Amino acid sequence: MSALAQLEAEIVGCRRCPRLVAWREEVARVKRAAFASEEYWGRPVPGFGDPRAEVVVLGLAPAAHGGNRTGRVFTGDRSGDWLFAALHRAGFANQPLSRSRDDGLALTGCWVAAAVRCAPPANKPTPAERDTCLPYAVRELELLADARVIVCLGAFAWDAAWRILAAGGTPPPRPRPRFGHGAEAAAGRFTLVGCFHPSQQNTFTGKLTEPMIDAVLERAAMLGGRR
Known about the structure:
Mean pLDDT: 97
Distance between the termini: 33 Å
Shape: globular
Strand content: 5-15%
CATH topology: Uracil-DNA Glycosylase, subunit E
């Protein structure tokens, strides 16, 4: 078993946060009417992508009826539709759609993960839950030896990324750079790039447009040496 596969198995078996365990399992048991016939994953959702990725895309947490249902991060919800379509346009994904773990989607040069691996109530993890999950991301980044860029989807991911790097021995600059769409900051071998989260709240209102996310991914590809 590879080190990444071993880490994935540890993540999937994690039960460290009682509130998150209870919520993810309740959602998987009750289900949404539209998915009543499906078997929900109902466990922590590991990262996904190319083990030789230069670019890591970091989100907040799995969606209750997205990744918590399908078992793959950003898969089966509107945010994921937006993200993987953009990754396809940028040349990181072989197809623009992500519906299930066995839909044929493959990533090249990119790894996608979430700061918190379980779906949280109201999509809001507590600081303690965030910090409990961070060691998984620390180990993940260590194993992704070619990674040079972290695209942070939203302020939560931006903050989590700095905490992950600090826990891995790379302290943030002082003052710590503030999140913003297109923001960039260097730390150790990584450059962090900020991007508004592709949530419906942002995409429906035009706060995040396709050209905006495309520009961020193009910049990430350039920083990672893929352009």
